[in-house]
Amino acid sequence: MNDADTDADTTDRLLLQRMAAGDRTALTVLYRSYHGRLCRFLSRLTRRADIIEEVINDCLWITWQKAGSFHGDSRVSTWIMGIAYRCGLKALRQHGSEPVDEDSVPEDRIPSHDPDEDRELRDWLGKGMDRLTVDQRVVIELVYGVGHSLDDVAVIMQCPVGTVKARLFHARVKLRNVLPGLAGATSVTKENAP
Amino acid sequence: MRMPTDTGRDCARAWEAMPWVLQDSAPQEQTEWLMSHLAECEGCHAEFEQQKRLRLAMSLPADVSIDPELGLRRLLARIDAPEVETAPARVAGGSWLTRALVAAVLIQAIGLGALGARFWAEGTPPPAYRTLSQQAPSVPAGAIHVVPDAAMKLADWSALLRTMQLQVIGGPNDVGAYTVMPSGGAATSPAVVQRLRVAHGVRLAEPVNANP
Fold first, then answer.
1. Which of B6, B53, B64 is the mutation pick for testing A, counting most A CBs within 10 A?
2. CB–CB contact A149 B22 (8 Å)
3. B53 and B72 in a common domain
4. Is the CATH code 1.10.1740.10 the one for domain A1-98?
5. pLDDT per residue over A47-98, tens digit each?
6. Exposed, middle or buried by CB within 10 Å (0-12, 13-18, 19+), for A180?
7. Tens digits of per-residue pLDDT, B131-187?
8. How many CB atoms within 10 Å of residue B155?
9. Quick check: B86 contacting A, CB < 8 Å?
10. Are B65 and A43 within 8 A, CB to CB?
């Protein structure tokens, strides 16, 4: 954990203490701080915005209720991501998992300021992630997207570190085998586009 | 599935180190070692470039647009009205069920009480049956079961009883048997039984306590 992570965790712990005392301003700060990362994390599980919004609110509702019982065994972010992961899996069981299909995403859900380069990168990543299982996508997001350690991911997913290592290994091998080809296909498509 | 690299242990070590070097969480010496390896190994260099691109792609914001302020307002509203959202429905349902169960138990208790009071007031009538475990109705010692012939006249039956100094203490039962005893509480002798057996109009005479 670097200095920035330590500072962020200290801030999060203070927010949790205030939330445990019923401070809604602290909840508001925490909500805005985590909304973006939770949204991206959950978008690896499902493409449905309504489910993502529901899970974010369920997650922070639980965080609000359990703020006083946080013992500090892990970072606050690890604790909250673990809650979001379990809420996300529960929502998937209730609503059914959605395939990662960029074509099903309405245009208005893709940020209008998204430059072409980002859009191509997003498309390349989406097609690669589509080849992974849900658990593999979660591990890739937590390691490469959020920057968690293997130990943190094991806490979030409530499984042994060895299982996380195996999921990360298989996900990387799959991506290594498909991503270069997808990058070439994307470039060719772009070059042939009018 | 094949190993990510097959050019030696260094490539495997480089493969292991890449995510943590990209996270900037690897020790300094591990980062330096990886950089020196990448300078010499074209395959690992290409893999690391792809890993960098993967990390860059993963760091892009979510492409699913959700208004955080709207979600926050909904969460605060949920916190403001927890009793309205969930608790009352459960409590109301539980309360209705509880009331129904209590009413049913009360009705049963009242019914049982009334039934018990009625039996207490009337006295329990003797059952019309007898189980094998119950003791047989007591018959005085020395009694004799006598079955007169169906054609025997009442006057003849009365005369026989007088002659034998017997009196009827029970019967006739379903098969027409009478229970008789010597008058004045005298003991029954085998001679009395024998005389009954040979008397005209008597089909059967048997001491009650005699073993079959």
1. B64
2. no
3. no
4. yes
5. 889 899 999 999 999 999 999 999 888 899 999 999 999 999 999 888 865 5
6. middle
7. 777 666 667 778 888 999 888 888 888 898 888 888 888 888 888 889 988 887 666
8. 8
9. no
10. no
State the Cα–Cα distance between residues B61 and A37, nearest whole angstrom.
8
Q: Which of A169, A122, A129 is nearest to A44 (CA)?
A: A129
More confident residue, A194 or A186: A186
Instruction: Give me the phi and psi of B204, to 5 degrees please.
Output: -155, 140
The predicted complex's ipTM stands at 0.79
Task: Tell me if chain A has a CB within 8 Å of the CB of B57.
Answer: yes
Find all residues with CB under 8 Å of A144, minimum gap 6, and list them. Answer: B19, B22, B54, B55, B58
Q: Are A182 and B33 in contact (CB under 8 A)?
A: no
* Annotated domain spans of chain A: 1-98, 111-194
pTM confidence score? 0.60
Q: Which of B58, B84, B99 is the last residue of a domain?
A: B58
Residues of A whose CB is below 8 A from B60: 118, 121-122, 125
**Does residue B119 belong to any structural domain of this protein?**
no
Closest chain A residue to the Cα of B20, Cα to Cα: A149
- pLDDT above 90 for A167: yes
Q: What is the pLDDT of residues B73-113, one digit of tens each?
A: 999 999 887 554 454 444 444 567 888 888 999 999 999 98
The top-level CATH class assigned to A111-194 is mainly alpha
Question: Do A1-98 and A111-194 agree at the fold level?
Answer: no
Same domain, B148 and B179: yes
